Structure formats: structure tokens, C-alpha cells
Amino acid sequence: MDVGDSNNGDSFEDLSFWWVFFGMFYQLLKKRQRAIRYNSILTGDDRVTEFLHGHWERIFNRTRMTRDCFVRLSSIMEQTGRLTPSRAVSVEEQLMIFLFVVGHGASNRDAQETWQRSGSTISKYFGIVLEAIFNMSGEYIRPPDMNNVHHTIRYNNRFFPYFQGCVGAIDGTHVSACVGGARADKFRGKYYLVDSGYANRGCFLAPYRGTNYHLRDRRRLGGDRKKEQFNYRHASLRNAIERTFGIWKRRFPILRSMHQFPLDKQAMIPVACAVLHNFIRMDPASVAQDHVSGDEDDDDASSEDDSVDADPDGVDVGESSSHLNIPQDMDMGVFRDYVTNCIHEGSGG
Fold first, then answer.
1. Minimal CA–CA distance to 165: which of 278, 2, 327, 283?
2. CA 214 to chain CA mean position, Å
3. In whole angstroms, how large is the CA radius of gyration of the chain?
4. Helix 56-63 and helix 91-104: axis angle, to 10°?
5. d(Cα 120, Cα 91) in Å, to the nearest integer?
6. Which residue(s) pair with 191 in the sheet?
7. By three-state DSSP, how is residue 222 classified?
């Protein structure tokens, strides 16, 4: 090999060395830039400590629950093994990240800035907590009691006994289910109140279409008074039931504007929020604070012309009437007319 060839080989090796050097330098520079990005004095753990030991309103506004309620939830999650602390992120911080996102409709970027964590860390722990709370649904979400009349109906003579077979209200998309065998018996005679967008059949009791039912409409002359009376009470009861969903959506704004999560996560989020809602309702202090902060006064519910007036003495207004449950295979239109006549006769015509 001559001298020229040797020089060319040395130049190639020198060039390769510099490429490797600049590559390593670039990677170090990127890591340095990422480290500088989260340079707040308060780390995620410091934020948790600040909220837990700061003014009570701060943790309530951040997590949608009182300090005691949050501590109790954290303890349950950790003691049952649903959540475990990692080397860098405590169970309390994991929960606060999740509650911050669902309770404020916050984006991943918002959470990164608040908790001084990377986007991947935020996404990771949001998913872990979501699955953990979703799996608690069997403990905190139960179907309606088919054997007893709800107190909203039972202790209000405008609704009882006329709607004693009502077990809920539906406002939105309904996905049918098939219940067979002995389990089907407890559903017989029961129904859901629905708006006029649904057909009045099956287990759906809808208002009369083309008939006034708001309070302001009832002051007008004319129309079918019997049908108006039915629609008015139907709407009042349905609004009372749906008010809970309004409170639920106000407490967790993510339900009003869902982020672009994968579809499986989107399906789990409403269930997890329902679990949290019911858990919070078990804490009297959180419920009281809801009233103070206005979360109990849902915009959708308060915009209606009527509200439910429970019997002031809280006494039973009468015995159940089996004939006001839907007989098996009865046409829902016939049943609605029958209830309408009962309401009209009970109100003096």
C-alpha cells in the first residue's frame, strides 16, 4: 500500500470519529434540553405536599374533593394494591394527576407543566389510575333497586303512585341488552322515563308529542289538559333524575369535551368518573362544599321551569298500587293513557 492510500484511510477514520462525536454530543444536548424544560422549584411531589398541607380550598379545586376524602381514597387504592408507588411518583401524585385531568378537562401539556413530568409519564399514570378506578365500578356503581320505590317518587304526591314503576331516566344513546332467565323477573313492570325523541314502547315511557308540558305552557288556554298534566309531571320527574347527571358532568368537565384518547380509554372514563362521583357523595364535607362552590346547581337542570318539591314532612304519601305498574305484555300507549287518567282524577279533573 502506498502513502496516498494510507492517508485516505486515516482521513476516513477521522471523519467517522467526528460523526460519532457529534452524534453523542447531540443526544446529550437533547437530554439537557429536556431536563431544563421542567425546571420549576416545585416538583410533582412538592406540589402534592403543597396541596395536602395548604388551604382546604386549593386541594378541593384541584381534586374535586376534600382533603380527608382524597387521603381516604389514596389509602384505599394503596392498601388494596390497586395503585403502587414507583421510585419517582407516589400514589398521591398519581391520583392527583388523574383527578386534575378529568376534573378540569386538562390536556397532557397542562398536566406536564403542573406536575413537572414528561408527557409519557403523565400518559402512563393517567392510564394506570383510570384502569384502577374503573375496576372499582362493581363496588361503587349498582343498578337501581327494583324492589323499592325511589324516595324522590315515594315522598312526592305528584309522582306517587303514578310513576312508582319508574327506575330511572334516559337522555342520550341507549344500548339494548338481553336479560334472560330468572333475572328478567325483577325487571317486569319497570320502565325508564325518556324524552319525546324515543318511541313510547317497551320499557320506555315517553311524553305525549305535540302537547305542552312546561310551566309557562300550562298557563296558556286550550289544549288537552289531561295530557298536559301527564307531560308536566313526567318532565318534572325526569328533570329531577337527570339533575344528578348534570352535577356529574360539572364535577368532571372531561365528560363534556372528551380528549382524543384511544376508544377503549374513552369508554372507561365515564365509568371511572361515576365511581369517583359516588365515592365523593359518601363524604358529607365534599357534598357540602359542592353546594358552596355551586357544583350542585347544574346549568341544565336550573334552566327548567319546574323543580321537584318533595313532601315537606317527609312522610309516606300512600301505599303502592300494583295496578300502576305495567302489566306483562301491556302496550305502553295503553299504560300511558291509564296513568294519565289516574293523574287527572287524582288532581280533581
1. 327
2. 28
3. 29
4. 70
5. 17
6. 166
7. coil
Q: What is the DSSP letter of 327?
A: P
DSSP lists the bridge partners of residue 193 as 169, 205
Question: What 3-state class would DSSP assign to 231?
Answer: helix
pLDDT per residue as tens, the chain (349 positions): 454 555 555 555 555 656 666 667 666 666 555 545 555 666 767 888 888 888 888 888 888 888 999 999 999 999 999 999 998 899 999 999 999 999 998 999 998 888 888 899 999 999 999 999 999 998 988 777 777 888 888 888 889 988 988 888 876 544 445 556 566 666 677 888 888 888 888 888 999 988 765 555 455 545 578 888 899 999 888 887 777 777 888 889 888 888 888 888 888 999 999 999 999 988 877 666 665 455 544 443 333 333 333 333 333 334 555 556 666 667 888 999 999 999 888 766 5
What type of residue sits at position 242?
Answer: E
Grid cell 394503596 — which residue?
78
- Tallying the residues shown for the chain, one arrives at 349
DSSP assignment letter at 323? G
Q: Which residues pair with 166 in a beta bridge?
A: 191
Nearest to 125 by CA among 135, 141, 112, 138: 112
